[in-house]
Amino acid sequence: MFNIKNLCTTALIICLFQNLLSQIETKSTFFDKKIIAFGEASHGDGAVYEARKELIKEYKKYKKDSTLNILIEMPQSMCYAIKDYFSGEIDSVMLLKQARYFGLQTTSFLDFLNTYRNDSSIKFYGIVCFPPILRQ
Q1: C-alpha distances in Å from residue 2, one per residue of 46, 65, 99
Q2: pLDDT for 49-66, tens place per residue?
Q3: What pTM was computed for the model?
Q4: Cβ distance 83 to 122 under 8 Å?
Q5: Beta-bridge mates of residue 73
Q6: What SS3 class is residue 60?
Q7: Is the CB of residue 82 less than 8 Å from the CB of residue 91?
Q8: Residue 123 covered by a domain
Q9: Based on the number of CB atoms within 10 Å of its own CB, is 115 exposed (0-12), middle (13-18) or buried (19 or more)?
């Protein structure tokens, strides 16, 4: 469904990201870092996934032959599901059923993954920062 707010947010985030890259003296100062954190607070907004794609595209241009490990807020078990999806063992319906978080149960997330489905140099890993819940 077309949503002008999401479209404008996507355009704004991508413009801000491109502006950030153009202001960095050399891209090597940005892409030579061991960890590049790119957070989000919207959990599933398509604009965030579009901005991540732009970041990854720029990284791949700069570091042509390197492997890129992507950490996403999700259980590691979801990464196994992504691996199964990429290999064709499960379909997109099953993949989204295995997602526990709302932001992973979206077509935006699926579109993001499909961008890298045939790129073996990109690996996905899950990281969850929730403290354990103690029951009384």
Answers
A1: 11, 36, 24
A2: 888 888 888 888 888 878
A3: 0.69
A4: no
A5: 127
A6: helix
A7: no
A8: yes
A9: middle
